[in-house]
Amino acid sequence: MAKGMNEMLRSLKAEKELEALPEEEDIKVDPNKVEAGADVTIDKEEVVKPEDADAKRPKPVPKKNRRGSKQMQAELDDAKALAESNKEKYTRLLAEFDNMRVRNDKENSKMFDYGASDVLEKLLPVLDNFDRAMGSVTPEEKTPFEEGIEMIYKQLKETLKSIGVEPMDAVGKQFDPNFHNAVIHVEDEEAGENVVLEEMQKGYMYKDTVLRHSMVKVAN
User: Fold this and answer.
1) What does the mean pLDDT of the chain come to?
2) What's the pTM value of the predicted model, to 2 decimals?
């Protein structure tokens, strides 16, 4: 009998617990309430039962269509544009720097050549004196001393040639005022017109510039 009473009490307790539960309510979707981050448009209000809630729940919006992804893409595009702009600026500055370096090298080279020309021009009278000294001695009259002087003279000419100083050797060439200075004009029917007959003083070139004009005799 005690067992039956216990079962009756448990049954009454269960009924009271069921009565305390709230009644089932239909779930309504509010069209004015949209979850942040989703592009959702609700055309009408729809009553959804609890058991159908999962099936009726809107599908997640693809990441590429979310506002956050669009913003990140825009920032990425801006960063790419900035990087490309900086690359162009860097390339342009590098080209300008390279051009400036080339110009500076040319200007420095010109300044060096200008200074060297001034020094080398002062050495030309020394070469003239060597020429006169060597021309005044015949091969039969040469002594060991004179042969030693001739060797020094050849060494000096080779050294000057190695740095770009060379004689013009104007004899037999057409007179050119850019290289020659005519000090004597003679009538010579056998020679061509305006041909250099004799070099009174040798002219010299330093690389591509005239170090000293040749003083020449020219046929009319």
Assistant:
1) 80
2) 0.53
